[in-house]
């Protein structure tokens, strides 16, 4: 992960490395000289900031749950009742093809939720790895923005939009029409002014917020969105 990503999420490379070594090595000691366990949900923020737990409130018809359930079914395709990874005894219907759009049973969603709150010694723990594999989705730029403490510009943030639009114009000064950073449709170096914020520019901000961490230019796009779409 680049220094940009670590800085954006509020931790330094050195701090993360040190904390990771301590967590995984079980160096943190409690009053009884025992290694301190930490909730998996917290460890995920430290070791896999490009992932997010899928919230149990999200509908099971959501693509994130579909992908998670597919991963679990694929991993346990040859299992029998009571012998799958998490011993989901209520998962009785194991027949049928594994597809991309199957809603998971409630027991799977609930187990993801409960397991994510369990405490383990570090990211080497098997349960941590299982929650990471079966219960997370790719983080979006919007997730990172919210974590940064910045606020996303809305329809009524006129002054905020003027300020960021001005930054965009300055960044693309001297650039030919159609070659600006985000290729905003109605941007024109000869006619665009600070006072008249492009609606297409606002749309670009909305689109960019949904970019997922699996995209190669995620961190560079995050930096641009942070500058041009927040206050």
Give a description of the structure:
This protein is mainly alpha-helical and 231 residues long. It has 2 domains: 38-138, no CATH class; 143-228, no CATH class. The chain is built from 10 helices and 4 strands; from the N terminus they run ααβαβααβαβαααα. It has helices at residues 3-8, 13-25, 40-47, 63-75, 106-116, 126-134, 141-148, 158-171, 199-208, 218-228, and strands at residues 38-39, 51-53, 119-120, 136-138. A two-stranded antiparallel ribbon has the order 1-3. Strands 2-4 form a two-stranded antiparallel ribbon. 22% of the residues are buried.
Strand content: under 5%
- Side by side, the strands of the main sheet go 1-3
Helix content bin: 40-55%
The radius of gyration is 22 Å
Number of DSSP strands? 4
- What structural class should be given to the helix and strand makeup? mainly alpha
Q: What shape does the CA trace take? A: elongated
Unreliable residue stretches: 11-19
| Terminal-residue CA separation | 25 Å
Overall pLDDT score:
88
Number of domains: 2
Oligomer: single chain
The string of secondary-structure elements, in order, is: HHEHEHHEHEHHHH
Number of helices: 10
Largest sheet: 2 strands, antiparallel
């Amino acid at each position: 992960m680049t220094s940009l990503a670590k800085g954006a999420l509020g931790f330094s490379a050195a701090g993360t490395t040190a904390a990771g070594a301590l967590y995984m090595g079980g160096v943190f000691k409690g009053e009884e000289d025992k290694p301190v366990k930490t909730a998996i949900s917290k460890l995920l923020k430290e070791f896999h900031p490009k992932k997010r737990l899928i919230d149990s409130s999200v509908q099971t018809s959501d693509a994130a749950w579909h992908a998670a359930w597919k991963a679990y079914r694929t991993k346990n395709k040859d299992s029998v009742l009571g012998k799958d990874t998490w011993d989901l005894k209520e998962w009785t219907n194991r027949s049928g093809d594994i597809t991309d759009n199957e809603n998971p049973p409630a027991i799977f969603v609930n187990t993801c939720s409960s397991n994510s709150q369990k405490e383990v010694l570090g990211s080497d723990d098997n349960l941590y790895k299982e929650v990471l594999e079966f219960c997370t989705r790719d983080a979006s730029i919007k997730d990172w923005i919210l974590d940064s403490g910045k606020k996303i510009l809305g329809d009524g943030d006129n002054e905020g939009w003027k300020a960021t639009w001005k930054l965009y114009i300055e960044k693309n000064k001297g650039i030919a029409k159609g070659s600006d950073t985000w290729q905003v449709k109605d941007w024109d170096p000869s006619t665009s002014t600070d006072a008249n914020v492009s609606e297409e520019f606002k749309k670009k901000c909305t689109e960019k917020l949904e970019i997922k961490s699996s995209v190669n230019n995620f961190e560079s796009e995050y930096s641009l969105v942070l500058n041009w779409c927040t206050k």
